[in-house]
Amino acid sequence: MNYSIIDFISLLGAVCLFLYGMKVMSEGLQKVAGDRLRNILGVMTRNRIAGVFTGIVITALIQSSSASTVMVVSFVNAGLMTLQQAMAVIFGANVGTTVTTWIISAFSFEVSISDYSILLLAIGVPMLFMKKSSYKSFGEFLIGFCFLFMGLDLISRYVPNLQENPAMLQFVTNYTTMGYGSVLIFFGIGIILTMVAQSSAATFAITLIMCSQGWISFELGCAIILGGNIGTTITPVLASLSGNLAAKRTAMGHVLFNVLGSIIVLCCFHPFTELVGDITKWCNGINPLDITKAREAAMADSTLIDPKGGLTSLAQSSVAFGLAMFPTVFNALNLLLMIWFTKLYVRIVCWIIPAHNKENEEDFSLKFIGRGILSASELNITQAQKEIYLYGQRVERMLNMAKSLIHTDPKEDSFQNTFNRLEKYEEISDRMEIEIGTYLNKVSEGRLSPEGKMRIAGMLRIISEIESIADGCFNVAKTLVRKNENHVKFADSVMHEVDQMFALVSEAMTNMLDILKEMEMPEANRIVKAYNKEREINNLRDTIRNGNIFNINNKEYDYQEGIFFMDLISEAEKLGDYMLNVVEGVKHQFKTIEPA
Q1: pTM, rounded to two decimals
Q2: Of 238, 310, 558, 561, which has the fewest Cβ atoms less than 10 A away?
């Protein structure tokens, strides 16, 4: 035995380089197409066929079914996609992920990409220093692509050779001759391996090396890949744990789709692999199952078996083609069968994960973002935008409560009840600011484009200003409490002017929420309206201030009433300022569109 511990550590390093390359390549593509992916997912999921096509295209683009499925879970969590739409996208994602296996298969033995990696790095690394962000992101993609195949080449180099180390690999061969039991064992290995690596592409690459080195047969390689199809569901499941009910159901739908399909194939495993073998022979000229038979019969076929008993490059190419064909045929047939039962899937998933009692709107909970796994950082921005809009709606309810307190008799129980609700909402507002801000900071730690980082900065400013609006609403309530404690009662003329001011503030709030709702592309006329409304509020404040001094001097009401009156007006004017600050946060960090 000549396989040392250094060789084993080198093998681990090669696997890590492969996984890192896959991560960098995927994230580079996500950064290049971040906005486009958001738009595609938002538009192209209106029916099952469009949803399937969307899942295929996006997964093929970002080279990761886990990333695209987590993305779908996030969009369902954010209310941008229904559960039925998500199912169709997930079905398509399972087909789209086979593109990665074909890339690995095509370049593993036919072309040695690792020989050209240095040339590609010479192109990719300088792109990192270019000013345009899309060039930088594409440079990252090229670097990740190089690392992926350099890692694959190193894995092949450091995997122990079966002929040279028979004793070391005896434990593997002990489990390869148990018939259908071996299929189940290696099926389980595929599940575990993919759950640990969180990448079905990594499992495929390792399986490809094992088959090409003669560790296992083509059929057992297919069993590992089939198990990897279930193991890959772990990532969206983990991502959904801190999500809402819809997100959990979406992840469960992904698990259900992959598990049912895998069970069906396990029930007819040998006929299915024979079908794949025949398709491979029709396309490639060689049936990978014949290679296994040739090895077992010790046939001296120089085109398939080399003099040392290993596989020739032609045989390795055929095995690689067959291993890529297996998940393609499996996922395509699974899709064609399951797509007609999308509604049934939704009902089954809803039955497995039933809805609980409706949450109290005054309970603190974020609806669209959680503290789970953050994948595809560029796309998590949409979730934060939806949460910020919900935050604004919650604060609008605080403004309405503060307005109702102005006209509520302090002797009635409803006054104290409303004040207590306002106090609770203010505490919730503080916690929402912290939760959303923490989430945005985590997103900003990911691999974001410069535009994405600008959006994060804008949203951090926005949530701070929304929290100030909440504080201002509670300050109005506290001012009213002090007024009542001093037994001050406003005259009808004063109440009229207070109502005028708060009506303008309410209009500014409504306009602000309309802008937050379309934060990605706010309308320019709404931005202009926000500035005009702020000027109206300031002008009314100045008019009331001058009138207040005149009324006090003319004994229309006493000085103490005038003080509380102006305190309310000042708080209302500050609310207008905070609302304009929110609008400016959107204006400076997001695009605006002109009205048609």
Answers
A1: 0.59
A2: 558
